[in-house]
């Protein structure tokens, strides 16, 4: 059994261990889970990921309780079918989906997962980013995956619902080192229906367009979409997508009580432009979340910078026998993977 220490990472490290265990049918024990966090141990969203991957792999589990810091996980082969998961309140649905997404390469029949919780919440990729940035990029590498959102869930009430659908896939290597020239920009602005009278979605989109037009990036906004959704909590999401010949940068921002729509848009544009200036082929979210794909199918990806998440993930993949390396070259920082 593989023995792991989760003290240097957060919930994402634990979720990634579940994913790798499912892909390789490797038993593991992780101690000191989220040990560096103010409140260590499993939170409800981490427990839900554990239970979901355990269901998919018919795993034997010890320590599956909120607050537990040591988990033993012994999986069998992943199986398709339909699964359901309730995270509760505003726990991130996109992070749960991320624990399951790479399992597509080990399936022999389709799998669907319907989850309830927060679809766009702090400290995790928003659902618009997940559906319009990450999934399209991976589909270009032959991943067969889609997400349907039945209801939006925002902080603090949550109450969202979405379904991830996977088909057995054989993804190809990722070659995202030279992103090429910028081709187009897309703006997606979402707000809850109670903000429609104040034109919040339209104001976010307009501000983002104006900021991009005034920037040094020679790129045309080809899509400017606004929409209003029903949700149990008031909120907004602004997403800016910069598409290149061979890469994509997506940046999202969430509204807060008392924060003007224009400021939300500015946050998203600022993040997108900052990532653009690094010369990277992908944004910071993707830099971390593409590591499982580099490990299993190989390739190279130029990233904005090496974060703590990236470093701890590379170490974790090494423990499971995968070859992922951080390379620093004249043209920036590159993640390299050998299947």
In short:
With 339 residues, this protein is an alpha/beta fold.
Helix proportion of residues, in percent?
25-40%
- What separation lies between the terminal Cα atoms? 22 Å
The CATH homologous superfamily of the largest domain is termed RNA 3'-terminal phosphate cyclase, insert domain
The CATH topology label of the largest domain is Dihydrodipicolinate Reductase, domain 2
| Alpha-beta classification | alpha/beta
The largest sheet, given as strand count, sense and whether it forms a barrel, is: 4 strands, mixed
Rg calculated over all Cα atoms? 19 Å
Give the averaged pLDDT, no decimals. 95
Strand order of the largest sheet: 1-2-4-3
Q: What CATH architecture of the largest domain do you see?
A: 2-Layer Sandwich
- Overall geometry comes to globular
CATH class term of the largest domain: Alpha Beta
Task: Give the SSE order as H and E letters.
Answer: EHEHEEEHEHEEEEHEEEHHHEHEE
Number of DSSP helices?
A: 9
Low-confidence stretches: none
**DSSP strand content:** 25-35%
By DSSP, the count of extended strands is 16
**How many domains make up the 3D coordinates?**
4
């Amino acid at each position: 059994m593989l023995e792991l220490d989760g003290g240097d990472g957060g919930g994402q490290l634990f979720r990634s261990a579940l994913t790798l265990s499912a892909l390789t049918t490797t038993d593991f024990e992780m101690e000191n889970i989220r040990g560096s966090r103010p409140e260590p141990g499993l939170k409800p969203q981490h427990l839900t990921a554990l239970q979901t991957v355990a269901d998919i792999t018919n795993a034997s589990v010890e320590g599956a309780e909120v607050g537990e810091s040591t988990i033993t996980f012994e999986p069998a082969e992943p199986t398709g079918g339909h699964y359901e998961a309730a995270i509760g309140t505003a726990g991130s649905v996109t992070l749960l989906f991320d624990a399951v997404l790479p399992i597509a390469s080990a399936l022999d029949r389709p799998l669907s997962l319907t989850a309830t919780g927060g679809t766009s919440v702090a400290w995790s990729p928003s659902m618009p980013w997940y559906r319009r940035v990450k999934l399209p990029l991976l589909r270009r590498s032959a991943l067969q995956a889609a997400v349907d959102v039945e209801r939006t869930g925002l902080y603090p009430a949550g109450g969202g619902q979405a379904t991830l659908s996977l088909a057995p896939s054989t993804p190809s290597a990722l070659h995202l080192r030279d992103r090429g020239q910028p081709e187009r920009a897309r703006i997606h602005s979402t707000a809850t229906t109670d903000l429609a009278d104040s034109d919040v979605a339209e104001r976010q989109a307009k501000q983002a367009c104006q900021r991009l037009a005034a920037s040094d990036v020679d790129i045309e906004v080809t899509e400017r979409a606004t929409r209003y959704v029903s949700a149990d909590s008031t909120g907004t999401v602004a997403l800016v997508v910069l598409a290149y010949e061979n890469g994509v940068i997506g940046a999202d921002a969430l509204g807060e009580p008392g924060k003007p729509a224009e400021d939300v848009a500015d946050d998203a544009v600022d993040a997108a432009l900052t990532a653009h200036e690094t010369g990277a082929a992908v944004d910071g979210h993707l830099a971390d979340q593409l590591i499982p794909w580099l490990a299993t199918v190989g390739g190279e990806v130029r990233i904005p910078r090496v974060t703590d998440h990236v470093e701890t993930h590379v170490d974790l993949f090494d423990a499971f026998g995968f070859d992922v390396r951080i390379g620093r070259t004249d043209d920036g920082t590159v993640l390299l993977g050998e299947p």
